[in-house]
Amino acid sequence: MKFEFFKAFKNKQTTLELLKSIGVGLLSNAVDFLLTAVFLYAYGHEHYAGFWGVFSGATVDGLPYEPYLSVYITATVIGFISAVAVNYILSSIFVFKYGNVGKTKRGFLKFLLFSAIGLGITSLGSWIGYDVIGGNIWIVKLIVQLIVFVYNFITRRLFIFNVKLIRDDENTINL
Fold first, then answer.
1. pTM of the model
2. Could you read off the pLDDT of 89-148 as tens digits, one per residue?
3. Under a CB-based contact definition with an 8 Å cutoff, are residues 159 and 174 in contact?
4. What is the pLDDT of residues 59-73, one digit of tens each?
5. Which of 3, 23, 27, 152 is the most exposed place for a label (fewest CB within 10 A)?
């Protein structure tokens, strides 16, 4: 099973699933970005020059405003959890050929487990990028989301929405 995953991309179905996953990922990321921005604006609305100031950095007094790390991480978590819900529903229905495999209680628990790991990667990456390195909130968020997208596609394809899991528990992750 070492390189079977990469060989799968010769299969049109896998390529189609990847393309659909990108579309669902973009929609999920839009939900994530929007809800993150709404939370940041709700917390610091007195600092921003309107809602779009959250994205552009435009502030009322013209000085840079950086929310507390706890506010940024909370906003990121709220956006992430909402995006996970959207992603689960669309992945089960639209993305994966064997989406019904993941619609079980066990499949949902695996989805949550892998998503929690993804949230850990997101939080750690956000902390490193924003607080340690001092990067732009939105650039850091985009880079972290790209990393988590690759992680999500691989884990969902191999361990959640895989018809072989029905027949072969030897290579699955047991909860």
1. 0.70
2. 888 888 876 666 667 788 788 888 998 898 899 889 988 998 888 888 788 888 998 898
3. no
4. 888 888 888 888 888
5. 3
